[in-house]
TrEMBL record:
Gene3D superfamilies: Winged helix-like DNA-binding domain superfamily/Winged helix DNA-binding domain. This is HTH hxlR-type domain-containing protein. The keyword S-adenosyl-L-methionine does not apply. InterPro entries: ArsR-like_HTH, HTH_HxlR, WH-like_DNA-bd_sf, WH_DNA-bd_sf. It comes from Companilactobacillus farciminis.
Length: 126
């Protein structure tokens, strides 16, 4: 029998449902330092299309992970920032980042050429 839409095996399964795609954690990572406009987020989250970014931002807003602030200006100015709930993911993402950095080092020691643009796990764990 399938689980109901709002029933999860454990906390990890709910976390994965909210963070679900490869893009959402990256968006959150870039917002940890402060609010960003849509175009700046797209520049920082390499490889994401404008359409997918907007979809992901809408989902994160619906899950109350981010806030969307619209400024009454011409041209329109929209900024995204983390909510308190979004900031609460910092340690989770910091642990993931640290684990990935350790794996990259191990793989490099085994002859693979893994390059990480950011080594930033420490900013997440403070």
């Amino acid at each position: 029998m399938a689980k109901a839409k709002n029933e999860f095996t454990n906390g990890a399964s709910l976390t994965l449902k909210i963070l679900g795609t490869k893009w959402k954690p990256l968006i959150i990572c870039h917002l940890i330092d402060g609010p960003l406009r849509t175009l700046e987020l797209q520049r920082r989250v390499k490889g994401i299309s404008a359409k997918v970014l907007v979809e992901q931002l809408k989902q994160l807003e619906a899950d109350e992970i981010i806030d969307r602030r619209v400024f009454n200006e011409v041209p329109p100015h929209v900024e995204y920032s983390l909510t308190t709930t979004g900031h609460s993911l910092a340690k989770v993402l910091g642990s993931m980042s640290y684990w990935g950095e350790q794996q990259a080092q191990q793989l490099n020691n085994n002859g693979q050429n893994i390059k990480l643009e950011y080594l930033d796990h420490e900013k997440w764990t403070k």
